[in-house]
Every structure is written in structure tokens, then in C-alpha cells.
Request: fold
Amino acid sequence: MARAIALHPDVYNLLIVVNINNFTVSEIRDALMYESEFFNDKTETRKCIYRVICKLTKLKLLIKHTHSEVKKSRYTKSETFITADFVMKSITDVPVTQQPKVKSLRSEKDESSTDFRYELSKEKKTYEAELAISLSEVEEFKDLMQRFPKQNDLFKPFYLETRERSVQLLGKVNALTKVLNIVELAA
Reply:
């Protein structure tokens, strides 16, 4: 690609940093809403992410997979995606309707406590989004193993790996939930 493709910081985070792949529009919308403080409305988030997906599909960076048995299309990254150059849009390029509300002024101690909670909450949301995607993959592998029992040897390693990842992510979510609950009680 000759030109870098600019993505919203939270979309960039999901596609590049978290490296989400093999997703539906609904899955990435939900992950984006968990991850982001900018996207609060389900319909608007879906419209926004769908525009990005269409753009990336048109550029042949994402491949759309449609199945007659499944209503939702899945998208996977192409080989071109891996070599493409992506950049984060600066926060000033984000439309005003997506910018977060301004926080009120607080004391320095209160602010550091809030930053701590914010960071933990953000991490938790990231893990929750990854967990949702991982659980969808587990369900898909289960479905494939049921539909094609003769191919179980092909699907089983992926199923087991994804299930293990889901367990690890659930552990992280639970740990952060406990810490956040303690922090909230102490506040």
C-alpha cells in the first residue's frame, strides 16, 4: 500500500494491537463498545464500524465470508492487511459527537485514584471484549465439529486452544473485577 490508512484510535487498537480477526460486525461493534469511551450508542457504533469494514473490504484488506446457513457475514484479514500501513487518527480528527465528556476538576489524590480505576476498567473492558470474541470462536468450533464429525481432528486443536484462551481471559476479568470492587468500596 502506498498510503497509510488512518483508523480511529479504538478501532486501531482492536484491529492492530488486540489483533481481532474472523469477526462479525456485531462482534467487533460489541468489542468496540467495551473498549471505548467514545462509542456509547449501539446503532451509531455499528454504522461507524460497518463503514470502516466496508472501506477495508473494498481495499481488499478484509475478506468477507458469507454462508447460506449463517445469516451474519464474517470478516478475516487478508495477506494484504498484514503488510498494510495503518496509522491512528489523532484525537482532534475524531468527530465531536464521539469525544468523551469533560471530567470535572478533582484534587490530585482523587485524580490518581480515578486514573488507577480508569486504567483497570479499561483493561477489564479489553479482556471482556477479547473474551466475547474467544467465546464466539469456541462456539463456532463446536458447531463445526458437530456439523463435520469426520473432520474433528482438524478442528479440535483450535477448539482446545481457543477454550484455554477463554479460561485465561475469564480469569483476568474476574481478577480485575475483584480489585475494582475493593477499590470502589475504599473510595
